Amino acid sequence: MNPYLAEILEHLVPVLAMVFTVVLVALAKKGVQTFEKKTGLDIAEQHEALLDATLTRAVALAEEWAQKRLKTDAPKPDGAQKLHYALDFVEAEVQRLGLDVKGREHLTKMIEARLGLGR
Predict the structure, then answer these.
(1) Which of 43, 51, 52, 102 is deepest in the core (most CB within 10 A)?
(2) Which are the contacts of 107, defined by CB distance < 8 A and separation ≥ 6?
(3) Could you tell me the pTM of the whole model?
(4) Which long-range contacts (CB under 8 A, 24 or more apart) does 49-54 make?
(5) At what angle do helices 104-115 and 79-97 cross, to 10 degrees?
């Protein structure tokens, strides 16, 4: 192979790869926008709705768990125990569903608001 051609390709290939990547990202974004427009779906809105449903279910399960414990000889669970129970459930569900969440502290605040612990 010609040494000049090899030198040119050595510098040209990374530049072309970068340009190709930018074009692919732009096409993917346009495809998602077209999909959302045609179907009337908002992916971010669905993500929030799924997270909200998961949080609501977690709080209901934590309350149910606390009620079951009252029927036994176990001590009455406090708010922190219910929070921990709900948080464990939400973290497992978020991982299972592949949701993107800001972090454990963010989830904790959202659950605390639903449990009424932030008062």
Answers:
(1) 51
(2) 55, 87, 90, 91, 94, 101
(3) 0.60
(4) 50/97, 50/99, 51/94, 51/99, 51/101, 54/90, 54/93, 54/94, 54/97, 54/99
(5) 130
